[in-house]
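user: At home tonight, take the chain set out below, taking as long as you need, and be ready to discuss the fold:
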Amino acid sequence: MELVGSKEWSGGRPLVLALVFGCCLASVLSFRPNQDAEFTFLLPAGRSECFFQTAVKNGTMEVEYQVIAGAGMDVDFTILSPEGILLIIESRRSDGVHVVEPTVEGDYQICFDNTFSRFSEKMVFFEIIVEGQGGDEVGDEVWPGLEENEGSLLEYKLEDIRESMDSLHKRLERSRQMQAVLRAFEARDRNLLEDNLWRVSFWSCASMLVMVCVALTQVYTVRKLFDDKRRVRT
């Protein structure tokens, strides 16, 4: 009986190794670099900057932006289709989130405009999340080659493993995106606090200087009232 059991295990060992190898390969391919991107850039006064993102038809493209530094904390924001059609326009906003469903495949233009400001430059953070780019095609080619046989030694189905890995990948990707957004919020709040600290310190010093000047003026005036050098005849 022991001999028979060892023969059965030796016969199923290649299948187990193939399944493990397929899981590892699919997991590596599922975590390859995607087309999501995030940038932080400095937008000079009186200038506009545009970025291009490729999107496929029937997919989704989410764009989130925040002005994290600069006087006024606002910019003009636009998204144009590959055909030059204006899809989204916002004026003098500090942040925004927009989801675009591309109707044509091509390069979509994302622009930030600071031409209304003549002196103040702005620091802008934005993130692009693209879905429906056919990112699972390579992973799909790996799994069909590993067909599960009934009565094998594995307790879990390949489909269950794949769904778990896909769910984990999506949650990790979403966590990374949320952390990037939170970092942008933190940077904006820190810059705002530092700017307010400078203003409070400046006006506090100015107020103290005015108070000292007023006090010295009052002392000088009172002393002048009692400093009468004229002689009084009795």
